[in-house]
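Write out this protein's structure.
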Amino acid sequence: MVYDSILTKKRKQVHAKIARTIEEIFGDNICDCYGVLANHCMACEDYEKGAEYARLEARKYQKAASFKDAIEYAKRSILCLEKLPQNEAVQKKVIDARVILSIYYLNIHYHIEAKDAVEPIIDLAVNLSYQKRLPGIYTAVGLYYCQVEEDFVKGTQYLKDAFGDIGKRRGFSHLVVGKLSIRRRYCF
């Protein structure tokens, strides 16, 4: 009730102060507070820090194999990144975040959501020649077409692109997920 009576500008200041205080107090053990910091940074519209803390919290959940929680924080990171002024560096971070989100979805076999995560950035990644993330994008889209649409011709072409020359250099985690999904599909 008291919180709702505080003016928006004052609320932002309170959240910023809380975030700074947590950073100061926890210093070396800040990893225990990534989620709380992400929420306070988002509330005070410090989207750069909010994106980073949300990314770190998502990664923490991913390491614990808690993919649904990792997905929630990955989405928050993307939300923050998309609110920042867009330049090439930020656009690459958005691409990175969306590909990582698709990995989390693929780990729990949510092929539709994985494709939906990367679909908005396909053209951007190609236009930026962002070779690092193209295998992940193609894997998510290819698995969607194979597993959901059962369009094996289209899906296989995306997967071939993912496993091709680009995939040999980078994007290893997506290749592993993709190959395991294909084996599971055709061997069982």
